[in-house]
Amino acid sequence: MSTKSSLVTGAAGFIGSHIVDHLIAAGHDVVGVDNFATGRRENIAHLETEKRFTFHEADICDPKAMDRAMLGVDWVFHIAGIGDIVPSIEAPLDYHRANVDGTAVCLEAARKHEVERFLYAASSTCYGFATQFPTPEDHPIQPEYPYALSKYMGEELVLHWGQVYGMSVASLRMFNVYGPRSRTTGAYGAVFGVFLAQKLAGRAFTVVGDGEQTRDFTYVSDVADAFITVAASTLAGKAVNVGSGGTYSINRLVELLGGEKTHIPKRPGEPDQTFADVTRIREATGWQAKTSFEDGVAQMLAHIDNWQDAPVWTPDTIADATEGWFKYLSK
Questions:
Q1: Does the annotation count 178 as an active-site position?
Q2: Model confidence over 197-206: pLDDT tens digits?
Q3: Which in 244, 260, 314, 320 has the greatest CB count within 10 A?
Q4: What pTM value is reported for the model?
Q5: CA 79/CA 99 separation, integer angstroms
Q6: Looking at domain 5-175+220-242, which of 3.40.50.150, 3.30.565.10, 3.20.20.70, 3.40.50.720 is its CATH number?
């Protein structure tokens, strides 16, 4: 693979910073963009003296800033955006601006500079309550909340720009990504961050429902590898799932982490299972995840001190934080 100049939006975020690291390790020059709305400076602090890395503190919704950042770029990895379910229910316009408008601005800057490849970080939440497992890309699209809808609308923009303007684009639908640098503060969200902070504090793990629900937990280094593998491939004009090749129960996660658990009510808008059919990406590019769930959890435990200052969620604080979840999504 020849070296490229790559732009990573959301470069200081969880997934974006890992993609930056993988690209630099492969010998590529990297331009990073982040406005630190959710990204963290410490995620890219180790790159301060890296000659192959240039950073722009900018908002992806700023056309002039994205035009400057895109100069001389071959590949674009559009990872920037905002996540979480409840905040998206309470502030849908914020999600539309970041995940839809921001994507359109990036696409236009990429089109102007005639980039070779544009890859988009999509979400498996577009499938809603999936009825087929493993879930293929042609499963019906049924977003359950504004975050899921905004990410799918971003994907539609990317594929449309590819169709209309002849851009070489691809969308990667991610399933339950976890690993070092995942968010430690802010809204109640991903189970790993919640559980690791609880473990550090000696608290019981707050397990939703009976804990038998399963998730396609995919380790972040495998996800970064998927983006770079797809960028270097001929796959274009399509959405592909990125998953681990398995699905694992919350009870199994608790078992691997070790500790007591307490149960909290099941929530509306949450599937009983996520499980990616990764046939399309494997057949098109040869990519498949390499990190076992057991090894990935061990890596998280090895980095557990990263959650030292994370909020320690309790059944009561979770109930308060997810009140909007039940208010708007209960059928």
A1: no
A2: 999 999 999 9
A3: 244
A4: 0.96
A5: 10
A6: 3.40.50.720
